[in-house]
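Dear Dr. V.,

Thank you for agreeing to look over these. As mentioned in my earlier message, I'm a first-year student in the group and I'm still getting used to reading structure tokens, so any feedback on how I've presented them would be very welcome. I ran two proteins. I've put each sequence directly above its structure. The first is here:
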Amino acid sequence: MNNIRKYRPGEAASSKWSEERDEFERDYARLIQSPTFRRLQGKSQVFGAGSGDYYRTRLTHSLEVAQIAREVAKRLERTNPFLSKREHPGLIIDPTVVECASIAHDFGHPPFGHKGEEVLNHILMRDHGLKYEGNAQNFRILMFLEKRAGSESGLDLTAAVLLGINKYPFLIEEEGRLKGVYGAEWDVIQELRDIWKMPEGCSTLEAQLMDLCDDIAYSTHDIEDGIRAGKIQMNATFFEDQRLIRHLVMEILNDPNQHKFGWEQVDIEQMVRRVLHDYLEQWELIFAECNREESRTRREMKARWVSSFASRLDIIDDTDRGWKKVALVKDGAEDMDLLRTMEILKKLAWVTLIKDFRVLRLQKRSEIIVERLWDSFIEKDKGQWIIPPDWIDSYERRSSNSHWSWPRFVADYISGMTDAYAEKVYAELFASKSGSIYEMD
């Protein structure tokens, strides 16, 4: 069982396992020492990276997801005896594997958050029939673009960590598929899934746990940032505003994943109103407990909601698929009410932060930057002279590889940029700029 989980599909057969460190600890070291991990500090979570020292970036978000996931994994190991039987490689929860998956889950996100992802996908689909998606780009980075000593490409991660990151176990090129894995990397992932005898469409327990902890962080930490920024105002006028409630209901109804939450079982508007009312009421109680100190109240609210969600995570039977499911659980069954509550809080963060008109103005600027960078690089004869030489060298060494066409290469280069670096290159190309040509990229 360990051999199957610790198998490294990209590593040379002659490589020896470390006798000093666990294989999953080696994965953890490779991930946090990678340039891609460091670049997360310069990529937007909600507010643009560099908006302020307080606000979260992709890096701090990933670390917070990892902290929540590791603690929950340890608890589930203690409270679910069947895990110790290790009956199936996908029905195991190793805290280090879950932590690695959490650290790496946002590696594929481009600069400027979801707007950057949207623009790259639109351009690639429109002009070249290719898709761009952050989760798929994760595997392209981990298995192809990243480099480490002794390896031709990728970080050569273990099978358990690769499948722990794979929360969408599908080939993204399939018709109508919005999320998944690009073809070249999917061949390897599919082979691992076949070796593990994974049920079709099912993720490992470790991937499911990482995914839910990502939702927990999103629905609690991003709201904390929103309150701090004044985008979410903690008063009845804000929380009872009909326009806010209408937007939340519309986000729920327009979500392509709405079927997962059983919204047909409830009056959506009524539930939205109840969750907002309860959230504000809790804030007012904690505000009084914290001597009316807003910063302490924000942190305490965040901590209590993280605890309320994380403490309810457990493993139940997924009878529809003949598999196991990590879920928010109450009385031995999935707690759909709490799941819907978490989704409403996620939508609250989205509507008030991402859909704020000032944020949308910044996103429009981001869209223009990404589009103009693309236009500058996409003609190979001209673009190759304004892309860093090490990138061009890598492209030329691998240009015979069918999954590194020039358009995909340009998308890889742009998507690897931090927000600030994208703005820097844009300014060099399109704005008046002073400074030395000897500045290091």
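The second protein is here, in the same arrangement:
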Amino acid sequence: MGTIQALRGTRDILPEEVAYWQKVEATAREILGKAAYQEIRTPIFEETGLFERGIGEATDVVGKEMYTFLDRGERSITLRPEGTAGVVRSFIENGLFAQGGVQRLWYTGPMFRYERPQAGRQRQFHQIGVEVLGSADPRADVEVIAIANHILQTLGLKSLRLDINSLGNAEDRQQYRQALIDYLTPYKNELDADSQDRLTRNPLRILDSKDERTKEISLNAPRILDHLSADSQRHFDQVLQLLTDLGIDYQLNPRLVRGLDYYTHTAFEVISDDLGAQATVCGGGRYDGLVAELGGPVTPAVGWAIGLERLIILLQKLSGSSARSLDFYVVSRGEKAEPQALILGQKLRQAGFSLELDLSGSAFKKQFARADKSGAVSCLILGDEEAENQTVKLKWMATKEQQTISQVDLLETAEQLRKEIDTYKN
């Protein structure tokens, strides 16, 4: 029988890569916690109607990309293609709106879309996202953008730019939709097949087409910024001014419409020039009508999602190896030494040190070779002679300096040892 492989569009996150994921998650968790955002965890699958109503039946996500199936109770179930709809459903179902004020929520986890896999885009992919529910203030728009910027900068990302647009309110969007249809209809036969299909169903998505001829036609299309009401224009002007006040650079992109129907007013993307075709690292915007559309009270809201696969690719380009920085690698060989090494190693872990215990039982030479590759600051060596004398040899990997110390002294001087290890790490 042949081996079973991961399905196309999914991938294993191997141990040497997990350190990047942990760094991103820890950084986001710390920054979001300090900004009073609370984590929420929603199911990976939901009733299909949630996404049809929330995202929009005319979108590519609902029409082409969702993983939808009937469960054993003949209910239509969908693996979540994005995080916002599930958070809003939870916000309504659990009565979070009744708490009053502004709800600041964040989430992380896998999402699922049936797309053509490529670098930075998988059929199972992961996101970190935030949702601010209950504020129509332009400051909420800018707060979420600033927090995304803070996370990405803290991670050390460079070559990023913020593209921003306004989609106006529902009335603005409807007027613009008609203006766009009027402009594009004479060119219908020149548009690519997907855009011809979108012309009456979802014409704004034509502006996002990658087809060269369609892009040429769209260059002279009406701009949604020219169809904003006075209130919508005022909201957008305040957003731009607040970004300027914070020193966050941006560029207007009238073609930026995002792919989901629920967006209103501010829409934005954070883009990296280092990612090629799949360049968007973070995308989001305001969605003031979604909560009411899903059966809740009228609730203004804004949020974003960061694609972790693309972010990890950037981090790997920036920092190269994600090698661990262990405090100790423990080498032992001998009938008495090996049990003692296990006990000593566990005591050191309980004292707060990180270490790897070599369990191979192979010759010292092979264990030393693994110690050299481990990324450990120091190596602890126990043979039967050390076991008999209750000592251990401590070898600093950077200088190859070696000393013999009693096992008791090693544990009793943990604080001083911690300082020495940190000196080598830095």
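From my reading of the second output: The longest strand covers residues 103-112. The mean pLDDT is 91. Does that match how you would interpret it?

Kind regards,
E.
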